[in-house]
Amino acid sequence: MIDISPSVMQFLLAFVVVAPLLGAVAALLPAPPGLKGRNPDQAVLRHGVTVTGAILVAALALTLGFDHDHPSKMQATTDISWIPALDVRIHLGIDGISLPLLVLTALLTFLCALYSYFKMPAGPSPKAFVALLLVLESGTLATFAVLDLLLFFLAFEMVLIPMYFLIARWGGAERRAAAWKFILYTLLGSVVMLLGLLLVGLKAGTFDMVALATDNGRGLTTSVQVTAVLAIGVGLAVKTPMWPLHSWLPDAHTAAPTVGSVLLAGVLLKMGTYGFVRIALPVAPDGMRTLAPYLAAFAVVGIIYGSLACLALARKGAKGDLKRLIAYSSVGHMGFVLLGIASMTPTGVNGALFANIAHGLITGLLFFLVGALKDRFGTADLDTLAGATGAALYGRAPRLGGLLAFGAVASLGLPGLAGFWGEMLTMFGAFDPAEGLSRPAFLTFMAIAGVGTLLTAAYLLVVVRRVCMGVPQRQAPEQATIADVQGYEFAAWTPLVALTVLAGLWPAVLLGLTDPAVQKLLAGGKS
Amino acid sequence: MTVAAESASLVQSVDWTAIAPPTITAVVGLIVLVADLFVPEGKKALLGRLSIAGLAVALVSLLPLRAGDRSTFCLTSDTEVCSYTADQFTVVIQLLVLGGALLTALLSVTETARDKLPAGEFWFLLMSSAAGAALLPASRDLATLVVALEVASLPAFALVGMKRGDRLSSEAALKFFLSSVTATAVMLLGVSFVYATTGTLHLTEIAVRLDDVPAQLDTLAKAGVALTLVGFAFKTAAVPFHFWVPDTYVGAPLPVAAYLSVIGKAVGFTGLILVTVVAFPSYADVWGPALAVLAALTMTVGNVAALRQSATRAYSAVRLLAWSSVGQAGYLLVPIAAAAYSSDDQIGSTVAYALMYAVVNLGAFAVAALVARTHPLNRIADYRGLYATRPLAALALGFFLLCLAGLPPGIIGLFAKVTVFSAAVDAGLGWLAVVMAVNVVIALYYYLQWTAVLFRAPEGEPAKHAVPVPVTVAIVLTAVLGVALSGVPQTVLRFATGSLFQ
Prior knowledge:
The complex is a heterodimer. Chain A is mainly alpha-helical. In chain A, 73% of the residues lie in helices and 3% in strands. Chain A: The chain crosses the membrane at residues 43-66, 99-118, 138-167, 179-200, 220-238, 259-281, 293-313, 325-345, 351-373, 400-421, 441-464.
C-alpha cells in the first residue's frame, strides 16, 4: 500500500522473527534502571507487552509495505547460507498466504501479553512466563516466515518446549499429564515429518521451498511423493489436529492457562494446516492427490466427531468443561480446513486459509471469554455454571454474556461473520474437487460436512442457552454478583470482535491476498 | 607425503610433527609419574596443572596438522601404505579425544583432592589412556590399532577402581575389566583370522586382498570380520555388550565416568569406523545389516532403561547419563551402518554427532560434578530448584539436556540428529530411521523430565557452597562451545559432507 524500500522490508521480517528471542533473553535479565516499574513482576510483564507490541507494529508495517498487487510474489526475502553441509539456508519471505497468519500471530500474542499484564495466571514468577511467551511467538512467526524445509522443522520444534512449560507450570488441574501428552504426541509427529522432509530434500536435491514449489514435484517419483506426503502429513495432522490424532488437544486446552489456550488454538494449530498448504500441496502434488481422499475422509469424520463430542459435553448432567468443549469444536473446525485443502482446488484452499484465520480470531476470543468466566466463577464446568436454569449471564453481566453469544454465533458460521466464508468455500471446493479426485466421494464428504455445520449450530446454541440465559436469582448465595467486562478485557477482545465482523462483511480483504498465491502454488509456478 | 624413505634403506625417518599429539600426551604422563616421587605431599596439585598444560600443548600441536596430509611409519617397499596417518579424520578425532581429556582433567582437579585419590597415579593413568585414545584414530594397521585400543582401555580399569575402600568402585572395575578383556580376546582372534586370510595387517591392503579371498578361506575371512566387530561392539557398549556400563559409571569417580562416556565411546567408534569402512568394505553385506540391527537394539535398550530410572534412587543422575549414553551410542552407529548401503561417505555424520555429543555430555557431567559437591548421592531429585540457587548452572544443564534430546534451544543437537537421520534416509534404511524417530521421543521424556526438575521451586533452604574454579571453567567452556555451535552448526557439520580419509 505504501512504498517501503526492500531492504527495510527485509529488516522488518528478520526483526519480527528474531526480536522476540532477544526479548526473551532480556526478560530473564534484571531490569535496567529506569525500567524497574513498581516491582520486578510488573516490570517484566510490561516488558512483554512492549516487545510483543513492537512486533505487532513491525508486522503491521510489513502489511503496509507489502505489494498488494502481487501477493503471489515472495516479498521481503532474505536468503543467506547458514549450514552448507546440510544445505540449510536462512531463507525468509512472505506472500499472500503467510502474511495474514503472521499478522494474526503477532496480534494474538500481543493481546495475550496485554491480558496477562492485568491478569497474570497463577503460578511461578512471571519472568519465565514472559520469556517463554516470547520464544513461542518467535517459533510461530518463524514457521510462517521461513522458506527452507529444515528451518521450517526447526521453527516447528521451537514452540514445543515453551508450550510444554506454559501448560505444566501455569496450567490448571492435571496440567502435568496434559503437558506430557502434548509434547510427546507432537514430537513423535514432527520427527516423522522430519523423515518426510529429508526424503523430499534428498531426492529433489534441495531444501528450498520456493525451488521445490516451482518444480511442483517433477523431480520426484510418485512413490517417493506418496511416502513423503504420508510422513509429512502425519506430523502436520498431529499438530492440526486431525481425527484420530487429536486426543492430546482437549487435555492440553483444558489444563492450559487462558493465554496458553488462546495461542494454542489461535496460532499453533495453524502451523499444521499451513504446512499442508505450503509444503504438501505444491511440493508433492502426485502424492497429495493419492492421499487427498483419505485426508478428506478423516477431515469429515473429525467434523462430525468434534460436533458430537461437543453435543455430549453440552448436555445437562454431562459435567462438560467449557474449555474442553471449545477444544473439541476446534477439531471440527480444523476438519473444515483439512477438507478444503484435500479438495486441491483454489476455492477449497482459499476457503481453508480463510477458515484458518477465522478460527484463530473466533476461537481465540472464545477461549478468552471462557477464561474470564472461569476466573469469575472458579470453574468452567458447564453444569456447575448453569445450575438449574442457566447461568443467566445476560442478566448478571450483560456485556460478557453478549460477547459470549457473539463468539458462539460467529463460531457456528453465521453469514456476515468471519466463520461463514471459510466453511462455505471449503464445501464449495469439495463440491467440485480437482481433476483426478473422485467427485462422488467428495460430494459425500461435502454432504457430511453440511450435517456437521448443523450439529455445530446445535451445540453452540445449547451452550448459549445454558450460560447466557436463565433466571437470575440475586438473593441466592451461590449466585454472588460477578463483575462485568473490565477495561483491559475490552482492550484485549475488541480487536478480535472487530476483525471477525470485518472479515465477515468484507472477505475480499483476505481472499484478495490469498487467492493469487494459492493459484500460483497449485499451478507450480507456471502462472 | 613428507616421509620419502629410500626403498633400500631399512632405517626410517619419523615425522615428529605428525605424531606429536599422542607423543606429547604420553611423555607428559611419564613425567607426571616420575615427578610424583619428588613432589611433596602438600604440592600434589602441581601434577594436575602439569597434566592440564600437557593436554593443552597436545591440542595446540594439532594446529600444524590441520591440512590432514601427513603420514609416517610407511612400508619401505610401498610408501603409500603407512601405519600412522594424520588425515582429516585423525585430526578431528584427536581434537575430540584431547579436548575431552582436557575437560575431564579440569573436572578431576578438585575431585582427586576431595576423594583423596592418589594424585600421581591418577594423572599418569588419565594421560596414558588419553595418549592411547589419541593414537587410535591415526593407526592404519591392525597391530597398532589393537595396541592403541589397549593403551586406551587398560588405564581406564585402574581409574574406575580408584576410589580406595569403596566396594562399589572395585566391583565396577572388575566388571569393566573382565568384559573388556573378553572383548579384546575375541577381537584378537578375529584379527588373527583376517591376517591368516590376507597375509597383511595394513588396513588398506586388507581391503584390497579381501576382495579376492580364495573360496576355501571365505568362511574364515567372514568369521574374522565378525569377531573383530564383536570386539569393537564391546568397547562401544553396543547392546548386547552393554551390561557393564551403568555399574561402572556409578562406581567410578565422576570425572572418570564422564571420560568413559565420551572418550571411551570415541575410541570404540573410531576403531569400528576404521575396520569397517577402511579395512572391510568388501564385506559390507556382512557388517552393514549387523550394525543396523545393533544400532536399533542399542538405542532402544539404552533409552528404555534410562526411562525406567527412578529420580529418587541413589546416583540416579549418573545412572541416567550412563544409560542415555548407551542410547546415544545407538545413534552414532546409524551412519556407520548406512555407509554399508550407500556409496556416499556417511561416517562423517558419526564424527559430527560425536563432536556435538562430546561437548554437551561433558557439560552435563560437569554440572553433575558441581551438584555432587552438595549432594553426594547425586539423585535427580537433588537437582530440584537448581535454578533458584545457581541459575546459570541450571540453564547450562537444561541446554545440555535439550541438546542431547535434540530440541531447540539445543539447535546443534537438533541438526546433529538431522544429519544422522539424513544418512539413514539417504542409504534407504527407512526402518532404522523410524526406530530412531521413536527413540528420540522416548529420550525426550527423560531428558525433559530432568530439565523440568531444575526449574521447580526448591525444597527447603538451599545451602550455598563455593564453586571450585576448574569446574566452573569446564561448565563455561562447554556451554560457550555448545551455544556457539548452535549459532554456527557448520563448524562441526562440515565433517558430515565429503570424505575425511586421505
